[in-house]
Amino acid sequence: MSVRVFHTLEPVFDADSRVLVLGSIPSPKSRAAGFYYAHPQNRFWKTLAAVFGAPPFRSTEEKRGFCLERGIALWDVIAECDIAGASDASIRRAVPNDISLITKTCDIKKIFTTGRLAHDLLYKLCGIESVCLPSPSAANCAVSEAQLTEKYSAIAEALKNL
């Protein structure tokens, strides 16, 4: 059964952010934890650590600091929607976040989305192009950890080339 969900997490960014990474909407686990990609089986943080050669993250503060130190902003495309659990496939009646909150404050050079739905909705709802990365969700078992690391290395490359 779908319920109306409202995005409750603040975006992560500062004036030095140059790359924006957008998901669709936080999962129930992420909303409960108060931070992005918080489900213990989600591979986002493990993948970023591998891409940048960083040790595993132990806290939300480490994750936030890691992103800000490297110029990475985090947020989601959707401000509110109807959704069943954490299933992106069930999302209906999506309302976008105002991405200009970040793009008008920072000199964002490249936007990445973590999954096809975020990519498609960003363009459909906001008219913004992005680089579509595979979803780091454990449910996306078609993509191995090695493949995720390879694809997500585009974030490090983008930052290196700025």
SSE map:
Layout: E1 3-6, E2 19-23, H1 28-33, H2 44-52, H3 60-70, E3 72-76, E4 78-83, E5 92-96, H4 100-103, E6 110-114, H5 116-126, E7 131-133, H6 145-160
Helix pairs in contact: 2-6
Structural features:
single chain; 162 residues; alpha/beta; Uracil-DNA Glycosylase, subunit E; four-stranded parallel sheet; 20% strand
What does this structure look like?
Helix 5 (116-126) links the parallel strand 6 (110-114) and strand 7. Helices cover 35% and strands 20% of the residues. It has one domain (3-160): Uracil-DNA Glycosylase, subunit E, CATH 3.40.470.10. The chain is built from six helices and seven strands. The chain is globular, with a radius of gyration of 15 Å. By secondary structure, the protein is an alpha/beta fold. Helix 2 (44-52) crosses helix 6 (145-160). It has helices at residues 28-33, 44-52, 60-70, 100-103, 116-126, 145-160, and strands spanning 3-6, 19-23, 72-76, 78-83, 92-96, 110-114, 131-133. The strands form two sheets. A four-stranded parallel sheet has the order 3-2-6-7, with helices on both faces.
